[in-house]
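Researcher: Let's try something more involved. This one mixes different molecule types, so please make sure each is placed in the same coordinate frame as the others.
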Amino acid sequence: MNLSLRRGIHNREAIAGYLFVAPVYIAFILFTLYPLVKSVIMSFTMVGTEYVGWVGLQNYAAVFKDYAWWPSVKNTIIYSAVVVPAAIFIPFFLAALVRLMTPAAQTIAKSCLYLPQVSSGLVMSLVWFWIYDPFNGLMNYLIGKVGIPPQIWLGDANTALLALILMSVLAGHGSNMLLYLAAMGGIPNTLYEVARLEGANWWQTLHNITWPLLRPTVLYVMIMSIISSFQVFTPAYVMTRGGPGLATSTVVYKIFNDLFTYFSFGIATAEALLLAVVIIGISLIQFRFFASDVEY
Amino acid sequence: MQNKVSDILKKVPAYLLVGIWIVIALTPLLWMVSTSFKGETSLMSTPPKLIPDPFSLENYQKLLEQPVFLWVKNSVFVATIITLEVVIVSSMAGYAFAKLQFPGKNFMFWLLISTMMIPGQVTLAPLYELVMNFGFLDSFKALIFPPMAAVWGTFLLKQFIQTLPSELIDSGRVDGASEWQIFSRIILPVAKPGLAVLGIFTFVAHWNDFMWPLVVLKDQSRYTIQLGLSAFRFEHTTAYGPMMAGATLAALPMVIIFLLLQRYFMEGLTVGALKG
Amino acid sequence: MKRRLAVLLVGLVALSVFSGCVKKTKRIDQQKKDLIQFWVAENFEGEGKQWEKVVEKYNNDNPDVKVELSVKPWDRTPLNVALQAKKPPDVVFHYFSDELPADAYEDLLDYLTPQEKEDFGPEIIQKFTNSKGKMYNWPWFIFQTAWMIGNGDLLKQAGLDPEQIQNDGWTWENFINTCKKTSDGERYGYGDAQSPETVNLLLNGLAGPIVSTTKPVEFNWGTQAALNVMKNYRDLIYKDKVMPKEVLGIDVFGLHEKFQRKEFSIIRSWIAWIPDLEEKGNISKIYILPYPQMDNKEVKLNVGSGGWSVFRQEPSQGEAHLEKVIAFVKYISKPMAGEFIPSNWSGLPASRSDREEFLPQMTKDDPNIALVAKFLESGSMTPALPTVAKKMNEIVKTYTSEAMSGKITAKQAVEKWSAEAGKLLN
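Model: All components are placed in one shared frame. Result:
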């Protein structure tokens, strides 16, 4: 292509870029950015429920001195450290295995694994609350069958967080699996043919072809898992109220409490901003390691 | 001959592993459905029973005393509209971020993504005030307009469209197609699996949304189904039986939507567009 | 083709949505009535319907006013969000507390007639007035609904006399012995799914208010009395073994289920549930049991109360509107047509004259209600505490929870909560 044509295309491309992005971005500025900026300002100007004017980092300092802050952070990190890898790898393997099945079986598998998602987090938390009933819940019944003594789960500070983690790990992971499946469908069969002819087995194919080509999707799943696990709230709110003690208090649970129980708007928004900064930091690192425009 | 046998043998572990995981994943759901058919006296039996004994419809009777079908209708209406709008605007923006070049693109994208990191609880009140100032309160508009800021939809489709080969676009340009035509005629059909996935996720997410409708809706006739289910939660207790019945009922439309859309996942990239 | 279809669909939807908007504005213009926004969260099943009847009657009797009832699920989020956004309803039931923005409320003191003031009595007026002298809650009812309740059949089977316990009270040792006598392989003596709340109640009753009500403000639960309470309650699980540790992992609903199935002889719950439990559990009589005395000290229970808040509207709707709102509030605070809604929760009217009129109906031949009424008449109200008390209570509950779950000892719990609460005072 000659130079003037290229420039013309670039102009056209740029205009198109802005126009395509416009609907989302206008709504974004209105409904997301504006409330957000307002909240951020709150963290620097509010003490309790009063608008006091600029208080600098006073709220942030108060957050670090709060007796519930570091336990909440610790719980959130432990939770994420287990749940995020589970959310990345389990559905990946499930997707790879499902691809080996007949189309009919695939439909059944996809439906069954996605199905748990159709009920809300609230309802699932309630169901799991029962499963964890220490007297006659399903969990104690099942582990009794393999010789493990019954646990108190949500009522015991030692097992409460584990209970919440198990709940997330033993999920269907349907949505992430579907994402992987959709992306795997985009890999041309020619690549797999070549690999087969060269004698690669299932694992080698998976490791050397599928995984690298799926990087953008993996990155997406990774970041979304990090965000959602760092922001875990519903199980802590519905099942344990952050207890026993602070055993299941997570950062967002604490934020919710600070907002709606103590009305400490300044502190709550400061905590939210701190959380966001941490998540952004981790995500940036992930992007650096993983994002490369893979094209073939 | 040998290939066939080893083929089948290879696949048995796959079926087994997936099968085990299916059982694990479905257990809570089965429990929910099973509980909905348990009468009040047998809700928590020792030992826990999967098959309700005695089988009872009293929870559903209790449930139907409420305007459940109205709530379901509201949920269907709201979730459908939101899904359509989100898929449309996300695919446009996702494509732009993935494949088009324009100044400030990276900054705009990162700004968009970084807002996902702030938990929604914090922006509840400012958003409520904004929505109230627009006069959307206590109407479906409050539910429908904010999701147009489809941040994670854009993110998802950007990543997905990024995996598509750029040759598609280049060949479109060489053929003299306009940007919109490239988008709608070349990219969209090939991105169908991603669109279907986003569609399902969006539908389910807004079907299950509880917090925001709770805050903005006042008139009970406008309640969505999740909000309606919360009518069974009182200060100190929850009417679990009817609530599980309601949850079971609420899950049904989504199962249907899923089965309708899931065939799109089967369609991958048509390799034919690349050859030759 | 598909794209055009989608665009058409979106266009149609947008059109219908906007037309809906236009219709609504027209409707509002036609209304000239004073709109009173009234939010109610259902305390128990069926309460919403009761309120609908009340509001309908009020709207009919007062044509210049339109009370708009909003029955919300039991979740404080909508109200809190509305308050934070400075757009609250006019009237809402509110467990008053000092930590909401002081300027969110209307001061109701000016609307208290001398007769009403005398009828409520100084203790109630003082209780419903915040630390800045504003009355931000209109008194509605008084109550104490959290008690120990016992399965009369099982108690009598074990050779015990529940009515005697009601009349004479009992010691902590008696209580533990009773639990042991009524438990066997299949049954536990005592269960409590809300131990932090119960411990809080006992601390208030035996160690006094959490923080001093007069200057200098001091934290009061670092004392030996507080330690005894924490230790005794914790020992129920670990030393006396009359309460199973599993009880920490269930909620009140689960506890009720087990009580109905006679797996517990005594539980801690709310007395409003007694008729329901008797019916579902096939129990001939459930008895309210007073809290046992510890170290020869009687648990001095406080009388709780609840009322209506009127929130300030921005922009102000004028004095005439406010008077109409308050007239409505006064109306709904009284028993109506022989019914008093909180009596479902065993609450009694806050006004003395209403109470005298209403009590005889409730007390008829029921030893339980007689016990509660006797307590309510003689009990004193929970004192008004400074703002910091709320956070202190949460801290105490956090460490109570840890102690009950065995993570720390009672002594450690008291040390920790004293240390953290102390920090709040600096």
